[in-house]
Amino acid sequence: MPGKEVVVVGESEWQSLKLLTAVEDEFGGLNVEMADQPMDAAVFAIKLRASISCWRLQGKKGVWMKIPIEQSSLVDAAVKEGFWYHHAEPNYLMLLYWLPQGAHSLPGNATHRVGVGAFVMNDRRELLVVQEKYGFFRGKGIWKLPTGVVDEGEDIFAAAVREVKEETGVDADFVEVLAFRQSLKSFFQKSDLFFVCMLRPRSFDIQIQESEIDAAKWMPFEEYAAQPFIQKDELMNNVVDICLEKIDREYSGFTLMRSTSSISGKKRYLYLNSSSLEIRSNMLVGPRI
């Protein structure tokens, strides 16, 4: 947390002002939505200083201030009062302020990006593979699994199905998560979680995503595994071994079980190995192999 000079506005002074509107959270802090109270930077600076003094006297803790991009002129005044950046989205910036003395206990920004790779095999032991137009694999002639990033608000299994459809035009059903890996400080110094998902194809005609994909085809599994890049890369070799265990032996990954939160009422999914468990079959999602 940046160092800040504590400036106290007298009670008589802030009582004469209309303070910034804030909503209390469950942790003794406040949420300030500036989209609901537009004002110019000069007025904002005065109200903010008075509000901080009032909130401190009230014993509040963290202040979360959301400034929409249309009011970006307010950011400078907030930073000068001791606020710091927490995270940004395309249409707003979230700032933080810690009112008590000492180190803050507020949660940090998101630490991980989530990606998926799709293992899609037909009945002839042919794997659905692509060559990408951009990135590390561009122009190297390497055939790889369809991959992509999980969108905000999207489930892992849904992202795998979507990426296959977008990149290749193939419709497929999620079967299970075969494995996942974590890579530290990968993307803008954030960690990267990558889930290898097995999907069962429901269509077989390929129509590539021309904006991102150079080529796609059904390739014999052994031919895919024999590529020099796959052979030399330890992680990819492990993925190949896992996929081979799945199709030829008795390897079981993590299938999908539907549930509902008792707190929010939202639908959610648990990924689990159900091979040796007695689980209500109506709670399982997708085909079983």
Automatic annotation (TrEMBL):
GO MF term list: ADP-ribose diphosphatase activity; metal ion binding; NAD binding; NADH pyrophosphatase activity
CDD domains on file: NUDIX_ASFGF2_Nudt6
Keyword Transport in annotation: no
Ranges of residues in domain Nudix hydrolase: 111-248
InterPro entries listed in its UniProt record: Nudix_hydrolase, NUDIX_hydrolase-like_dom_sf, Nudix_hydrolase6-like, NUDIX_hydrolase_CS, NUDIX_hydrolase_dom, Pre-Nudix
Signal sequence annotation: none
Pfam family, one: Nudix_hydro
UniProt keyword annotations, A-Z: Hydrolase, Metal-binding
UniProt-listed PROSITE patterns: NUDIX, NUDIX_BOX
Family in the record: Belongs to the Nudix hydrolase family.
Protein name, per record: Nudix hydrolase domain-containing protein
Source organism (scientific name): Carpinus fangiana
